[in-house]
Amino acid sequence: MVNLAKAVVEGDLAATGQALAEGRISAEHARVIARSVAELSDGAEPWVPGAAERALLDQAEQYDPQVLGKIGRRILGVVDPERGDELLGKQLERQDRAAEQDRQLHAIPWGQRRVRITGWFDTEGWETVRAALDPLAAPRPADPDGQPDLRSYARRQADALVELAERSLRTGDLPTQGGERPTLVLTMPYAKLAEQVGTGVLDTGEHLPAATARRMACDARIIPAVLGTESQPLDIGRAARTISGPLRRAVALRDGGCTFPTCDIPPQWCVVHHLVFWADGGPTTLSNSALVCPAHHNTAHHTGWQVRIAEDGLPEWIPPAHIDPQQRPRRHHRHKPSPTPQTE
Q: What pTM was estimated for this model as a whole?
């Protein structure tokens, strides 16, 4: 407010100050005009700021502040079409270089198991991130009972960012760190993992509940470790993937993607879910495996849905009783049996 007052009283925006005093524009309109004029290229002709102010005042009586701000970003090309676009291009180049240098991303512990993310992106950097997130942030198709995706846009964006990272870790496209592929290391006694009690500890010191650890163990790198009485590592084995390459290819060939009835996520973005959980001693075999996307992997572990292999060797999902009291099996449309040919 002080900066705006200086601009319209002591600065060169007297016409804006008069329009504000007469109530023809709002204070937010005045802020947009002041900002737009202040951000004009240094190479603009001396008469350009006054012309830009007059043009924006005319537009302010027709448009709200948000639209006026978009006009203000291109006002140089409007009032000086001969040189405006060239000057604007050079100005944007300088701003983009400065904005790229100022890229920041901060993760701040916020209590209650939450982390607040804040930071700055340049326009190009953010548009790149947004282009990658948008397909993953689309609302999910309605579930088999017709329930739509009720997540807010902000929630879907956050979920998309996590899924993007999970996919990168799963496909192994990331560079090595300390000679190894990025690996999430979780320490937890097997007895607690099997009984689904207590917590596991990540190598960052953060704790995860046992239920989350069981879900992670479905398609993870398992590194056996021998711990001393005070939990000091005495020996550590070689990493072993629970789902071998040939087995994963066989599961992908059979399932064709996520097996949840309404999901069309392709195989490369799915994890291999143990139908009898790995932590419960479930074998790592084709008959005990099914492809699920990250969202429906959570469904299989935490919402009462169960996955099983039917008599014909294809996976099907059993809904919890509160969704279907008869708990009738459901399967993906790609797995529905072909109709029996009719004879005349």
A: 0.48
